Amino acid sequence: MAPALWAALRSVTRQGAAVLKPNGFDGVTLLRSKAVNPFSRDIFSQVRHLGSASGMPEITTDHLDEKQVQLLSEMCILIDEDDRKIGADTKKNCHLNSNIDKGLLHRAFSVFLFNSEEKLLLQQRSDAKITFPGCFTNTCCSHPLHTDSELEEKDALGVRRAAQRRLGAELGIPLEQVTPEEMTYLTRIHYKAQSDGVWGEHEIDYILFVQKDVDLSPDPNEIKSHCYVTKEELKAMLEKAKRKELEVTPWFSLIADTFLFKWWDNMHNLKQFMDHSSIHRM
């Protein structure tokens, strides 16, 4: 075992605030008492990272898009099923089905952006995407990162900051055109879906609504196509998806089948649907 890992374990043991036990996906897991202090959490982040690096299966990415592979090193926020932070791990490790099957879960968001005509902006994911390439989906779907700015949980501010960042990165929307304050955080959904035999998703997904006319300059490495649709046009697309005439992402399909059109019908009265205490298991 690496000296740094032994040192971390000895330090945690001396504090007596936590217990380590074997775990199927990254070597260690943390059973925390209410007394665990920030220093202990930092130690466990180091232990988790070292364990993860030594215990993950080797996956070949040589055949994948170079830019998308670079993004696999981003650190996502690991959570439990009640959306409580428990650590961090790479985007790559969070999206391997081998880890998802063992319970690895991370925080995510889905943005639904409408223009002044109340048309919804959709994107078609580029063929370079590692999960669900070529699928149609809502405006923007991604993950807050394990950074101070995007870890902020009060009023889901960290998630909304991440959404602003990704709207710029994917769609080229200037940051000042959609601010975190303009996004309405409605609720959360918990879902799991396989993209192929290697990659998949397992997320607690924050649903964000915004109505704004924006400038677009999509990154072709992220987005193959985009369009604004009416409710009727989207319903027609979803029917085509059921007939296998086009593909939509599983989270978008779940949201569209359950909540989307009810929210869309009440764009100017969304407060009645704001539910920050529930996590909808789908």
TrEMBL record:
Cofactor(s) named in the record: Mg(2+)
Pathway: Isoprenoid biosynthesis; dimethylallyl diphosphate biosynthesis; dimethylallyl diphosphate from isopentenyl diphosphate: step 1/1
Keywords assigned: Cholesterol biosynthesis, Cholesterol metabolism, Isomerase, Isoprene biosynthesis, Lipid biosynthesis, Lipid metabolism, Magnesium, Metal-binding, Steroid biosynthesis, Steroid metabolism, Sterol biosynthesis, Sterol metabolism
Domain of life: Eukaryota
Reaction catalyzed: isopentenyl diphosphate = dimethylallyl diphosphate
Leader peptide range in chain numbering: none
Pfam families per record: NUDIX (PF00293)
GO BP field: cholesterol biosynthetic process; dimethylallyl diphosphate biosynthetic process; isopentenyl diphosphate biosynthetic process
EC numbers for this chain: 5.3.3.2
Gene3D superfamilies attached to this UniProt entry: Nucleoside Triphosphate Pyrophosphohydrolase
SUPFAM superfamilies the UniProt entry points to: Nudix (SSF55811)
GO cellular component terms, semicolon-separated: cytoplasm
InterPro entries linked to this entry: IsopentenylPP_isomerase_typ1, NUDIX_hydrolase-like_dom_sf, NUDIX_hydrolase_dom
KW Magnesium (keyword) present: yes
GO molecular function, one term: isopentenyl-diphosphate delta-isomerase activity
Domain Nudix hydrolase: 104-254
Function text: Catalyzes the 1,3-allylic rearrangement of the homoallylic substrate isopentenyl (IPP) to its highly electrophilic allylic isomer, dimethylallyl diphosphate (DMAPP).
Entry similarity comment: Belongs to the IPP isomerase type 1 family.
Protein name (database record): isopentenyl-diphosphate Delta-isomerase
Classification lineage: Eukaryota, Metazoa, Chordata, Craniata, Vertebrata
Gene (UniProt): IDI2
